[in-house]
Specification:
Layout: H1 8-14, H2 20-33, E1 40-44, H3 50-57, E2 61-66, H4 69-82, E3 87-90, E4 104-106, H5 118-127
Parallel strand pairs: 1-2, 1-4, 2-3
């Protein structure tokens, strides 16, 4: 994804005011309300993996999908530091394939805002 080329290195600094901790707590609460206390969860448009890491810390088996190789490189670094067993996939959310099912899919921040065509957004929702 060209929009994040060169920006990935400063993305986390730019997003340092985002209350990821509070958001992850709320996401976990919602997942539990739906009976999802464990299992595979996909972070669609995972970026540098900030939310992916927090959900892994909460006990979920995480997959992160993002179209930016540069963003995923930073996610790999976070994974190496945390030791979490997170699978990161370089895929466009408009065409992602998991070759299996997950218990839930989350997408935080502005990932879906990059899908500007209504039909493409509907296609993403169909894939989900």
């Amino acid at each position: 994804m060209d929009a994040y080329t060169g920006f990935a290195e400063v993305y986390d600094l730019f997003m340092d005011q985002v209350p990821y901790g509070e958001w992850s707590e709320r996401i976990v609460q919602i997942l539990k309300e739906y009976g999802i206390r464990e299992g595979l969860v996909l972070d669609l448009g995972c970026g540098t993996g900030s939310m992916t890491e927090l959900l892994a810390e909460a006990g979920y088996d995480m997959i992160g999908v993002d179209a930016s190789e540069e963003m995923l490189e930073l996610a790999y670094e976070k994974r190496a530091e945390s030791g979490h067993d997170i699978l990161y996939l370089l895929q466009d959310m408009r065409e992602f394939e998991l070759y299996g099912t997950v218990r839930a899919i989350v997408s935080v921040c502005d990932s879906l805002n990059y899908i500007t065509e209504e039909e493409e957004l509907l296609h993403v929702f169909r894939l989900v």
